[in-house]
Amino acid sequence: MSAKPVEELIKEWEREQVRLKGMLQVGDTEDWQRSPCFAGLERVGGVDLSFIKGDDVKACAQLVILSYPDMKLLYEDSQMVALDAPYVAGYLAFRETPSLLQALKRLEETKPALMPQVVLVDGNGLFHYREFGLACHLGVLSGLPCVGVAKNLLQVQGVVRDEEHFSQINALQKGGDTFPLTSESGRVLGKALRSSDKSTKPVYVSVGHRISLDTAVRLTHSCCRYRVPEPIRQADMLSREYLRKHFPSADLQTQDAGER
Questions:
Q1: What is the CA radius of gyration of the chain?
Q2: 3-state secondary structure (DSSP) of residue 258
Q3: Any residues with CB less than 8 A from the CB of 187 and at least 6 apart, and which?
């Protein structure tokens, strides 16, 4: 754990977020993103971290690579990691990104042909306190297109879990339906997506890096067999399976992705 006072770390992190945000690319940069059926997209990554309840330092960092569009598992990497940075809401990327970058580096060194063309991140992208969540952080530092998909709503920039929000959720009639997550300034930071006909609870999609919001939403929906898109669902399941195997007596928890 860092020996620096938290206040000093936050100031450093704020400066670093500003620096990295200057490198952020919002918009489609790949040919496959412009195709109605994502022609040319073959590999989609998913990342997640799972924790042992009561331990906020050790975690299982998980990377999966799935084939597209059939969502078959091509690669998995489970690694116990120590998160050196303290838990501070809005800055969780500084805790979690290093271990996820290491997982991508291991893949690049051992099986470069399986490097993902896009990564779905269990967390937020532009839909964040300072419009730079985990999916943006990982995307800029890895150089890969990234999409943030949060299971829970981050109440930020005037978007709150109020009666109007629940009314908008109830208006989502079928899988693929969406409504915008609009900040107090009028900027659309993401979309709530009903990911399947069977699931009435949406996921929250936002741009991470090198992709447009509409493409991020279409891609997320196309990866869903259930509520959570398969790359993230598989990463979550495999990380929990790893912890159950190696720590059979421990209670498990997943860090609330809404905060990421």
A1: 17
A2: helix
A3: none
The CA distance from 252 to 61, in Å, is 14
For 105, 106, 107, 153, the CA distances from 110, given in Å and listed in that order, are: 9, 6, 5, 36
- DSSP readout, 94-149? HHHHHHHHHHHHHHHHH-GGG--SEEEEES-SSSSTTS--HHHHHHHHH-S-EEEE
Closest CA to 218 of 44, 76, 49: 44
Angle between the N-to-C axes of helices 134-142 and 6-21, in degrees from 0 to 180, rounded to the nearest 10: 60
| Tens digit of each residue's pLDDT (9 = 90 or more) over 77-105 | 999 999 989 989 899 999 999 999 999 99
Please return the burial class of 131, using the count of CB atoms within 10 Å of its CB with bins 0-12, 13-18 and 19+: buried
**SS3 for 212?**
coil
> Helix/strand/coil (H, E, C) string of 38-104?
CCCCCEEEEEEEEEECCCCCEEEEEEEEEECCCCCEEEEEEEEEECCCCCCCCCCHHHHHHHHHHHH
pLDDT band at 209 (very low <50, low <70, confident <90, very high): very high
Nearest 5 degrees, angle CA 20-CA 26-CA 27? 150
CB 235 within 8 A of CB 48: yes
Read off the pLDDT of each residue in 193-210 and give the average, rounded to a whole number: 96
Give the angle 236-193-129 at the CA atoms, nearest 5°: 75
- Prediction pTM value: 0.94
Region of 2 please: left (phi>0), alpha (psi -120 to 50) or beta.
beta
